[in-house]
Amino acid sequence: MRYAILLLDAPYTSQAAHSALRFTRALLAGGHVVDGVFFYHDGVHNAARLAAPPQDEPHLVDAWAELGREHAVPLQVCIAAALRRGLLDEKEAARHGKQGFSVEPPFELTGLGQLVDLGLRCDRLITFGP
Amino acid sequence: MLLHTLNRSPRSPVLDQVLAAMGPEDRLLLIEDAVIGALPAHQGRFESVTGRVYALHEDLASRGLLALCDEAVRVVDIAGFVALTEECERTVSWY
Question: Which of A50, A82, A110, B20 is most buried (most C-beta within 10 Å)?
Fold first, then answer.
């Protein structure tokens, strides 16, 4: 089956990011196709490339990035939710005259239309809320 | 048939909303803090959906509740969670 994941909360704030990551890994292990993980609301913080959690804790940002690269899962970040929280990729940082950037591939800033598209295209859309 | 997931403890008013929204065939999966609802003391809250309540093994284990689970609650692991989403037409997440 084709799945999409919607994640609505930041890493280390609630269990949502852990639950979503575990579920997505289980989908891939079960032979399903994951057409995208969409990060929305505070979920955009999962794309923060400067995250530096203690070394004895799971690094959720790196874990998502690794999953995205290894399994070619698109990691789509709502651009409107991201920009207002200070999460900008290189292009947006330049456009807004900001030094440095906080989002990098495999995460991609994208529009809310992508979430609608995922919902229409996939057999299942599973939401992990705060 | 829908799958409902809940991540709030049974004391949360969200549980009332889930129970009111559930259709006669729908299933309820307790995840995260909601697994506290799998304890025998809380089974009265789930009378209307008896036999259709599931709880996530990993979240029970991480809270030390695995051995305390009521026998009316079906324990599924993360692969079982995936299987439930396959079997049910859609999944509604309550939080």
Answer: A82
A87-126 pLDDT, tens digit per residue, is 999 999 999 999 999 999 999 999 999 999 999 999 999 9
Match 């930041």 to its residue by tokens: A10
**What residues of B are in contact with residue A8 (Cβ under 8 Å)?**
95
- Provide the number of structural domains found in chain A: 1
> Does A126 lie at the interface with B, CB-CB under 8 angstroms?
yes
Of B6, B67, B65, give the one whose Cα is nearest residue B31. Answer: B6
Domain with residue A67: its CATH number is: 3.40.1260.10
ipTM: 0.97
Residue B81: domain span = 2-94
Domain that holds residue A89: 2-128
**B93: nearest CB among A3, A15, A128:** A128
